[in-house]
Amino acid sequence: MTDGAESRGLVFCGIKHCGKTAMAKLAAVHFDLTFADTDDELLKFADAGETVRALYKRVGADEFRRLEARAVSCLAGRNLGAYSVALGGGVPVNPLVSRELLGSLGRVVYLDVAVDMAYLRIAAEGLPPFLAGCADPQAEFARQCAGRRPAYAKIADITVRIERELPPEETFELVKKELAK
After folding, report:
1. 124-181, pLDDT tens digit by residue?
2. Element (H, E) at 174
3. Which of 31, 28, 29 minimizes the C-alpha distance to 180?
4. Residues in contact with 164: Cβ distance below 8 Å, sequence separation at least 6, in sequence order
5. Is 166 helix (H, G, I), strand (E, B) or coil?
6. CA 154 to chain centre
7. Which residues contact 58 (CB under 8 A, 6 or more apart)?
8. Facing residues of 110 across strands?
């Protein structure tokens, strides 16, 4: 590994559509880490071909959180070297996932993206179940983000503030600068 990334890996957290997966993939290549996405791990417990959105809708919030915790635990229990992990947006607020468990995967990087920017990304793909039935989905998303921000900040070793839309490679440069501090 280069550029001061710890040999234990990196864990990217933040609100939905903040760029966790893109940053985790870029970090995996740059630092020679094993890429993992907790959403992908979670889907291993679901029916073939099911999406995370469909799984959540089918099993409900409580069972989804149990499966999510199981996915993180399984990932932490593997001996595949250091990871670059993209966490599902709700993992940091999942009471079944401890800060210690996340820390065992690596340094936690919070991608603190502007809420309006993340909402535009979400809306472009269609509203997820937790927003689809809301009278004002954008306001509900902003409310949920405000509620989660303290949890993300609490578990983070590093916070990268992203104020405007940038190509992933430029955002990754911001991440590398914060890691170097």
Report:
1. 777 777 777 788 888 888 898 898 999 999 999 999 999 888 899 999 999 999 999 8
2. helix 168-180
3. 31
4. 114, 117
5. coil
6. 15
7. 50
8. 13, 159
Domains (range + CATH), the chain: 9-164 (3.40.50.300)
Q: How far, in Å, CA of 111 to CA of 171, rounded?
A: 10
Q: pLDDT tens-digit profile of 112-121? A: 998 888 888 8
Beta bridge partners of 159: 110
Distances 30 to 20, 25, 163, 169 between C-alpha atoms, Å: 15, 9, 23, 11
Mean model confidence pLDDT for the chain: 87
Q: What element of type H or E holds 9?
A: strand 9-13
C-alpha distance from residue 98 to each of 41, 49, 91 (Å): 17, 29, 9
Rounded Cα distance, 96 and 68, in Å: 9
**Beta strands of 38-94 (E only): which ranges?**
83-86
To which H or E segment does residue 33 belong?
A: none
Q: Side by side, which strands form the sheet with 34-37?
A: 34-37, 83-86, 9-13, 107-113, 158-162
Please choose, from the candidates 155, 176, 145, the residue with its C-alpha nearest in 3D space to the C-alpha of residue 18: 145
